[in-house]
User: What shape does this take?
Amino acid sequence: MIFGLVKKNQYQDSVNLMLLSSRLSGMDNLDRVSIMMGTPANKDIFKNTGMYVEEFDQAKPNDICIGVEARDKEMLKVVEKELEAFILDMASSTRSSNLSRVKSLQTAINKMEDANLALISIPGEYVYEEGKKLLEKGVNLFIFSDNVSLDEERALKDLALKKDLIVMGPDCGTGIINKTPLAFANNVNTGNIGVIGASGTGIQEITSLISRAGGGISQAIGIGGRDLQEEIGGISAKTALKMLEEDKETEVIVFVSKPPAKGVMDMMIEQFKSIDKPLVALFLGASGNIDSNNVYYTKNLEEASYLALYLSKKDGSMQKNLDSLKEKLNLIRANPKKRQIHGYYGGGTLAGESKLILKKELQKDKNSTIIDFGDDEYTKGRPHPMIDPTTRIQAFNNLKDNKEVAIVLFDNVIGYGANQNMANSLKNPIKDLLEYKKKQNDEIIIIGSVCGTDEDIQGYKDQVNILEEAGAIVVESNASAAKLAKEALEYLNDTRTLEEEDESFLNKPLKIINVGLMSFAQTLFDKGASVIQYDWSPIAGGNKELQRMLNLLKDK
Assistant: This one.
């Protein structure tokens, strides 16, 4: 038979109720037990599972309802005794915690005026009211709760968009923001890969695989499983992409979701193309080929993880070279008109590779240029530039009075048929240009590479040494030279000073209001995060109409 028990005004979160259910399920003479708060939605679940009894008719959302299937009604007394002991245990463990706790949202906001994130894990039917209040106060939302209506989700995300905030969720199971794990996050390495997911366990699998393979995560942003549905339109996905594109700690982005609505998917693909960082995309279960357009589309979580890891690997020598240029770059940065890049090449394919790497930089400044001096227009009546240095020597000389070029790229292709000592031919023009610019307080940076080997007659190392003695930065490959130039330009165009920190939400210390599951707050507290626990329970006995009237009175 089915028996029922109602414990008045003893609100407990769902995790505590699950723990109690597990504790009771192991009891002898108890066939089945179901424990939930007395909300309308939960009462429907009781009915659908055949565990509803008339005692639940008058139960309110703050009341614990226990449905028991047993042969003897005396089991109710045993269950009630266990329930009371459990509540006492919860109260005792709560008192022993140093976690700051409050009984109202306004008190939480008053105690943490600079809160920038709220983690919400209360019954879905109450999320909208609390979430709206927090967004109005300028607080980003992480909504663990499910059973939030699509209309309410859309309304919250529209409001967040207006206020330049983000709503992660509803039904958002995991996240990592500024090294802080949220909800069901794993303990992973910190690194340069940012993850966006409409799949909680998908995020966990990707971040775990990357971390175990030696990589690291900058941020992991859950957006909720319904964000890419047509009714929501990818509002949080678009916001998250923008945040990671602007995040200085994120160098590679991974985007994972189940197949979105067709229109939303097309929109997301267009946004992917505009991202100026390597992006790995995985639409789980999507069929057909997707036009890549410099975005890396993968078929499963493992493939996405390892491709992101490959793309995230940093060239240590490049970083070392960039660091060595910082003093010069800081001097150049003082002149905002000095942002052009010129490339003087003997190898046509090498010039083409540099154009591809620097495509966006060349598009931004029409006076920046990569010149292939081996092209027909430059070789009429004269030898190829891999033999004759004249055109490049003249190009270096012409830069002396040019006040807008910040970086010069060049190549030196050695081997059979090439100039016997091209580095020696270019040495004096490079050295003279650098010395002249320094005297004029008009610094310039010259970056090059040598294509060849030590077995070539010119000798690879000898050529490198000559060019470095002239003052050029010589790197391992032509691609590395172009990438270093790109990094240097990005540094020049970054208007922040070296001392300034990134003040975006992703890189600010999190100040968190936890609304609901205390276990989440305790984890954050143990990790050293600044967090206040709001011991939420439905006001006005869960009566929606009375709640609405109370809110109207507060607004007056």
